[in-house]
Amino acid sequence: AIAVDVGGIRTNFRMPDILSVGLGGGTIIRIDEQGAITVGPDSVGYRLLQEARSFGGETLTATDVVLAVTDTTI
Question: Is there a contact between 45 and 24 (Cβ–Cβ < 8 Å)?
Answer without folding.
Answer: yes
